[in-house]
Design a protein that fits this description.
0% of the residues lie in helices and 60% in strands. By secondary structure, the chain is mostly beta strands. The chain has one domain. It starts with 8 loop residues before the first strand and ends in a 6-residue tail after the last strand.
Length: 70
């Protein structure tokens, strides 16, 4: 399990607006599998880590986070 609160890792992730297709995102933090933050196309979004698939799932539709919250 990845456990880091302040990290910056570029990886392929499943993107909500792309209906789960993979694209590059930057993982900003990983508190636990269900509480992650990612940057996708300049927007900070919530994300989850799925250890079975090995991918982060970035919610760039409903999980947008204001910059000051991140």
């Amino acid at each position: 399990m990845i456990k880091a609160s302040n990290m910056r890792m570029e990886t392929e992730a499943a993107i909500h607006s792309l209906h789960g297709k993979l694209d590059t995102a930057i993982i900003l933090s990983h508190e636990d599998n269900n509480h992650c933050l990612a940057e996708y196309k300049g927007q900070v979004c919530t994300a989850v880590w799925n250890p079975f698939s090995g991918y982060y799932y970035v919610d760039d539709i409903y999980g947008k986070v204001e910059k000051q919250e991140a």
